[in-house]
């Protein structure tokens, strides 16, 4: 007995090998694009987090300056000091003319927590305690390879230096600089330097 072979409509014949390969290619390209998008999102989140933390660091320095007006505003020693933390973690302070230091380190008496400090002792304790946490030249620093700078901005018409006991308080510029990591978009950008220096400047008037 002969049986008639049922013909299969063309639309129900299923996928061919070429169609399957094309589908896999499209899915692969889409997944690669999604992976790049995720990497960029993670990088942007890290950049935003670092910038927020740097803003908090600058605000803490501004708070220290405002809290010790006896030194940063009315000190009779003048001119006012600059304060620096290098990328290697070396902290130093000097007058705007570059000669000597206006901050006075405590001796064997400890810190300002255990003894009564004058305004110069307090300025030293504030700045150098902050610097040790910010960057002390080790991997344990909050921001390794970052630098900081505090410089007095003279009043308009007062000359090149910040004089002592001003009628109007001097202003200070706090500058924090760090290396920001980048994410390559394509092969041409991947061959360039993958970090760039970024600075945050905060203007403070005690």
The biggest beta sheet is recorded as:
5 strands, antiparallel
**H/E series, N to C?**
HHEEHEEHE
Using only C-alpha atoms, the radius of gyration works out to 30 Å
Oligomeric state of the chains? single chain
Share in β-strands: 15-25%
Structural class assignment: alpha+beta
Strand order of the largest sheet: 2-1-3-4-5
Give the overall silhouette. Answer: elongated
Share of helix among residues? 25-40%
Low-confidence stretches: none
* Tally of alpha and pi helices: 4
Overall mean pLDDT: 77
Distance from N terminus to C terminus (CA atoms, Å) equals 107 Å
Please report the total strand number as a whole number: 5
Walk me through the structure:
Strand 1 (81-85) and strand 2 form a beta hairpin. A five-stranded antiparallel sheet has the order 2-1-3-4-5, with helices on one face. The chain is elongated and about 85 Å long. With 206 residues, the protein is α+β, with helices and mostly antiparallel strands. The protein has four helices and five strands. Helix 1 (17-67) packs antiparallel against helix 3. The mean pLDDT is 77.
